[in-house]
């Protein structure tokens, strides 16, 4: 892994920020430093281990002070930060692929306990077969548990999501854990120019973590997570449901404040639109697959096709209203899933069925086509983008049989 | 319908209250046999233990249920439940359970008759009279029939079940109070088929013949037991993060008393106590409070009666475990020892059956110590 190198210093009216050529993992490590994280727990698995190494380097170089605990496995790793969080520490953790799954008991209880652990999921295919490359099924496994879940597109956005993440997750109205999806290799291990804000600017944006009267401390005698059985459990689940609803508001507030202080973050906190103003056909997906699709869109537009892209940034809470408002403007939508859900309705991906469900009760809704693509870290190449476009255009013209609405792209026969 | 217990014409619900672990198999056998005996006349039924209980724990009250119905359709209203809200008959296979039941996974002590509807029945296995048992049972809010099935609390089951016929006697008693649902001839036939043992069949008949019934009117019983109410909070009033207030150091939980698990209680001879701290140190429930004199008094509301204090006490007969049914309340007696020493010692002797003064015991003709064999 390359050393993050300081390349440029730039004056701004209100602030001084530096630039680094950094991977997504290194950008996350910088966020850990800037957020003054108290405890992080680590256990190596590619691609998450990029953060481990980058954070260790910051500590070794005397640039960061964080309690860095190397666990004996992912389960302990997530348990360590859960407990550290309960005693009032700002925490960071993360894993990838099957490592993420090994931590799953701890992952489930962290959401139940409403502890604002911030994690990255360096997306990696689930073994077997062995594959280091990106698939979103690892992170998507938390979608029903009360974890906030977002996907970054660039190294810059990785850092920005992390800084926003602590603010949102730790907000008392939310108090839920957050998983940030970082596409393995394309984001975790690819260096880009990243703007690093000053400590003063981050301090102005990110309040100190305060658990209030939920702090586990001898001076505040509380019992956490007693056996409640059927008498209390449903009320507790409803609290989590409300916290997830509140997160929509809190994310919107944090996004506006982030934009004001740092001048980044796009128009909408939940989704980014690209060339959609006059579009008839759009693609929607998460993470870095937007990048080759934007290339395809510019090419298709030169050929006269009115196509655009909607990139979903937050998956939980699912921004239903924003998605409906955006997608109901188009004739057809091609949903690109870098995941699978074997045996699901229409054999579609996870995102496909979520979007279809969100649009079900909309009077004027687009035709929706599903694509399973780029699994195991396979790249989206332009012929694949063409195929996605052709099939979505066929759907837009009504030229599609019912059983022909979800497609695997780029699979050898 | 005939019989002592008034039931619906479509189904009957019976609960068996027992103590883990020794009566777990017993309770299950009773509940299953109720259904199987009723099956002989064409009824159907279900038997199940309360899911939230921890019947593997020694002494902890737990429940088993049997529902018998005239057909599958009528049975459905009793299915997919953790426990019936209302029962026709409650069976307690340990008479100390009439002091109330506090299950491991529930809130507060509840009277033994609590789920029994008006004109239902409470059957208790006991060697005491109905009046003696009633004197320890919560004041009745509804009329019911109290039945005493002769016998001591069963210790039939731990690793293996060694049948002491408690199950057969209880089945016979049930046939006596609810013959429309459980017929004595069906019970006997079932036992004969299962055991091929005429002694077991005779035990069922003995339970039928010898169970003493006593009508209990509203207001009969004792008001000595505390009544606990526990309000369940809503999602807007509950603290977020699955948090409940913990006790501050030195403070005891006002809701969770645990003494429902007790069949014996420790009684302390403060005169012979050498203040060695062993009981205070080893009590798993931190029941002992230090008195100004440095003695250790028992907080009976917190005591589950495990007997460890009596085991670790190095002084002979300083802590004596005594039958719980001899006591009417949970008040500590150290105040009495302070204010009226002689009265306390008399109370200690009455309850424990051992002399308060060990020298008196030796003088009264106990075998002289031979020495060297300790």
Q: Describe it for me?
A:
The complex is a heterodimer of chains A (413) and B (374). Chain A has helices spanning 24-34, 49-60, 74-86, 97-102, 104-112, 137-140, 155-170, 199-205, 229-262, 290-302, 320-327, 350-359, 382-396; strands at 5-11, 16-22, 39-42, 67-70, 91-95, 118-123, 148-151, 178-183, 192-196, 222-224, 271-274, 281-285, 307-312, 314-316, 332-337, 367-372, 406-408. In chain A, the strands form three sheets. Chain A has a seven-stranded mixed beta sheet, sandwiched between helices. Chain A is globular and about 70 Å long. Chain A contains 13 helices and 17 strands. With 374 residues, chain B is α/β, with parallel strands linked by helices. Chain B folds into two domains: 11-216, Pyruvate-ferredoxin Oxidoreductase, domain 3 (3-Layer(aba) Sandwich), CATH 3.40.920; 262-363, Alpha-Beta Plaits (2-Layer Sandwich). Chain B is built from eleven helices and twelve strands. Chain B has a seven-stranded mixed beta sheet. The longest helix of chain B is centred in the first third of the chain and has 16 residues, at 24-39. Chain B is globular and about 70 Å long. The termini of chain B are far apart. Residues 366-374 of chain B have low confidence and may be disordered.
